[in-house]
């Protein structure tokens, strides 16, 4: 694929990916573009179809997967998630640096493609803090919260493996984590301008 290298943001649910991403997109309008994933989960209050996600059904999403429309897809906490080829192409057509927010399964699948992104993991300072953030967010049932915490334990182990991520950011103090992310992405966007 041509154009600037995309950026994959991953990390446990509740680590702070969306918080950091939304701020980044707002502060750097016209530089980064979000790859809008598909999901079968229900929208949360305030989430917009086509902006936060393409909210869809299992049947429609499976049909798209079977038709080869997805770069990657995964089952997470009882729902399907996936990155369509169109989601990435839409961002690239606007000449923006494409940012993808995917779980660890998505990271592994993207590594099998020719997308060649920079892989950044956003990690919480501890499981206890992660659980508190997820509970305080009030978006999960007890069942989905437990599934997310189980997935987080796996994610936190895998993210320590050498070579999985280019950069790991611990999101303890939000300001510090944001500065760290900005610094890394400034390098990416400076490289992109040289292209
Ligand atoms: N550094 C931080 N300190 C305290 N709270 C934080 C911090 N970063 C994020 N939060 C809060 O933690 C919660 C989870 O953050 P966020 O929704 O951004 O996580 P996420 O990684 O995008 O999760 P998911 O993968 O489930 O979408 C939010 O309520 C957010 O406001
Ligand atoms: N493999 C993929 N994972 C994705 C995608 N879009 C989001 N995600 C990940 O799902 C979980 C849960 O997200 P939530 O919005 O329900 O809290 C989180 O870890 C995301 O990173 C995708 O297209 N592919």
Q: Which features would summarize this protein structure in a list?
A:
single chain; 195 residues; alpha/beta; Rossmann fold; 5-stranded parallel beta sheet; 4-stranded mixed beta sheet; 20% strand; globular; binds adenosine-5'-triphosphate; binds the ligand Nc1nc2c(ncn2[C@@H]2O[C@H](COP(=O)(O)O)[C@@H](O)[C@H]2O)c(=O)[nH]1
Nutshell version of this structure?
This protein is of the alpha/beta class. The protein has helices spanning 17-27, 58-66, 85-93, 104-110, 127-137, 142-158, 174-194; strands at 7-10, 32-34, 38-39, 54-55, 70-76, 79-84, 97-101, 118-123, 167-170. One of its GO terms (molecular function) is ATP binding.
Folded structure, characterized:
The protein is of the alpha/beta class and 195 residues long. It has a single domain, classed as Rossmann fold. The strands form 2 sheets. It has a 5-stranded parallel beta sheet with strand order 2-7-1-8-9, with helices on both faces. A 4-stranded mixed beta sheet has the order 4-3-6-5. Helix 5 runs antiparallel to helix 6. The longest helix has 21 residues. It is globular and about 45 Å long. It binds adenosine-5'-triphosphate and the ligand Nc1nc2c(ncn2[C@@H]2O[C@H](COP(=O)(O)O)[C@@H](O)[C@H]2O)c(=O)[nH]1. Pfam families: Guanylate_kin. Its main location: cytoplasm. Keywords: ATP-binding, Coiled coil, Cytoplasm, Kinase, Nucleotide-binding, Transferase.
């Amino acid at each position: 694929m041509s154009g600037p290298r995309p950026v994959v943001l991953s990390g446990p649910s509740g680590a702070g990916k969306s918080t950091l991403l939304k701020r980044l997109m707002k502060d750097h309008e016209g530089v980064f573009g979000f790859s809008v994933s598909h999901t079968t989960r229900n929208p949360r209050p305030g989430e917009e179809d086509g902006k936060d996600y393409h909210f869809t059904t299992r049947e429609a999403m499976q049909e798209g997967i079977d038709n080869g429309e997805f770069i990657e897809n995964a089952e997470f906490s009882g729902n399907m998630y996936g990155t369509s080829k169109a989601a990435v192409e839409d961002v690239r057509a606007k000449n923006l640096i494409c940012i993808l927010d995917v779980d660890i399964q998505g990271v592994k699948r993207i590594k099998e493609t020719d997308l060649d992104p920079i892989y950044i993991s956003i990690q919480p300072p501890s499981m206890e803090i992660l659980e508190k953030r997820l509970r305080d967010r009030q978006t999960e049932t007890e069942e989905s919260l437990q599934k997310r915490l189980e997935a987080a334990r796996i994610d936190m182990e895998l993210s320590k493996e050498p070579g999985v991520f280019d950069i790991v950011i611990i999101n303890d103090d939000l300001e510090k984590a944001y500065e760290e992310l900005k610094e890394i992405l400034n390098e990416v966007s400076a490289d992109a301008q040289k292209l």
